């Protein structure tokens, strides 16, 4: 991702998120963010996108073998978890007394034309 300015994301390390797209999609199970890769626009989420890596024996790993680890997924495929609603929720930034805070957008009553 080549941009002139560093992008700002609402998701940080340690946040609870739900995966909204891909093979590991689960809208009811919150998971923890292990790492945010800002330059690539990706996140590493605990227990999501598991890959197997075959490693040769080396000085540090004398046995070698198959290692399972999490691979990064795109940041647009995760959504912050709102514990009050028990679901994924969108957020907006609000400035109060010089500090920026994230505020969850609540779901409005479902109505209208069908």
Report on the structure:
- It contains no helices and ten strands.
- By secondary structure, it is mainly β.
- The strands form three sheets. The protein has a six-stranded antiparallel beta sheet, with no helix packed on it. The chain has a two-stranded antiparallel ribbon with strand order 4-5.
- It is globular and about 55 Å long.
- The mean pLDDT is 88.
Mind sketching the topology for me?
Elements: E1 16-19, E2 26-37, E3 42-45, E4 50-55, E5 65-70, E6 73-74, E7 78-82, E8 87-88, E9 91-96, E10 99-104
Antiparallel strand pairs: 1-2, 1-7, 2-3, 3-6, 4-5, 7-8, 9-10
Helix content: under 10%
Oligomer: single chain
Q: What is the CATH level 1 assignment?
A: Mainly Beta
Give, in order, the helices and strands: EEEEEEEEEE
What would the CATH topology be?
SH3 type barrels
Structural class designation: mainly beta
Largest sheet: 6 strands, antiparallel
Shape: globular
Give me the CATH architecture, please.
Roll
Calculate the terminal CA-CA distance, rounded to whole Å.
Answer: 41 Å
Low-confidence stretches are none
- Per DSSP E runs of 2 or more residues, the count of β-strands stands at 10
Q: How much of the residues is beta strand, in percent? A: over 45%
State the helix count: 0
Report the C-alpha radius of gyration, rounded.
Answer: 18 Å
Average of per-residue pLDDT values: 88
Count of separate structural domains: 1
Strand order of the largest sheet: 6-3-2-1-7-8
């Amino acid at each position: 991702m080549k941009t002139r300015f560093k992008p700002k994301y609402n998701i940080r390390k340690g946040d609870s998120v739900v995966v909204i797209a891909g093979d590991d999609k689960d809208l009811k199970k919150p998971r923890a963010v292990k790492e945010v890769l800002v330059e690539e626009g990706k996140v590493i989420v605990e227990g999501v996108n598991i890959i197997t890596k075959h490693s040769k024996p080396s000085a540090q790993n004398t046995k070698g073998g198959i290692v399972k680890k999490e691979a990064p997924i795109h940041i647009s495929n995760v959504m912050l978890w709102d514990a009050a609603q028990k679901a994924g929720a969108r957020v907006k930034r609000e400035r109060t007394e010089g500090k920026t805070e994230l505020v969850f957008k609540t779901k409005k009553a479902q109505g209208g034309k069908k």
